[in-house]
Specification:
By secondary structure, the chain is α+β, with helices and mostly antiparallel strands. The protein has a single domain, classed as Glutaredoxin, CATH 3.40.30. The protein is built from three helices and four strands; from the N terminus they run βαβαββα. A four-stranded mixed beta sheet has the order 2-1-3-4, sandwiched between helices.
C-alpha cells in the first residue's frame, strides 16, 4: 500500500495519485490541508519537512514525486524490493 501525504492543491501530489492509478497500486491519499489531525500527524511523522508530497511505500519513506517515479521504475524493472 502506498500512502501519499499531500494536498489536493499540489500538482506533484495529484501526479503521485495518478501514477498509483496508472500502475494499479493500492494507495491512500491523506490531504493534510483538509484535515487538521492529518496535518498534525504529518508534522509529527516527518519533523522538519514541509514539502509535499511525502510518500510511504512498503514501509519505506520516499521523499518526493521524482523519487517515487524512480522507485516505480526500479520496481517494474526488478531493481526494487517488490515487483509490480
Amino acid at each position: 500500500m502506498v500512502k501519499i501525504w499531500g494536498s489536493n492543491n499540489c500538482l506533484q501530489c495529484i501526479e503521485s495519485k495518478n501514477l498509483c492509478e496508472q500502475y494499479k497500486l493500492d494507495y491512500e491519499f491523506i490531504d493534510i490541508e483538509a484535515n487538521m489531525d492529518a496535518k498534525m500527524d504529518f508534522f509529527m511523522k516527518f519533523p522538519g519537512i514541509n514539502v509535499m508530497p511525502q510518500i510511504e511505500w512498503n514501509g519505506r519513506h520516499i521523499k518526493s514525486y521524482n523519487d517515487f517515479c524512480s522507485e516505480i521504475e526500479n520496481t517494474i524493472n526488478g531493481y526494487g524490493e517488490e515487483r509490480i
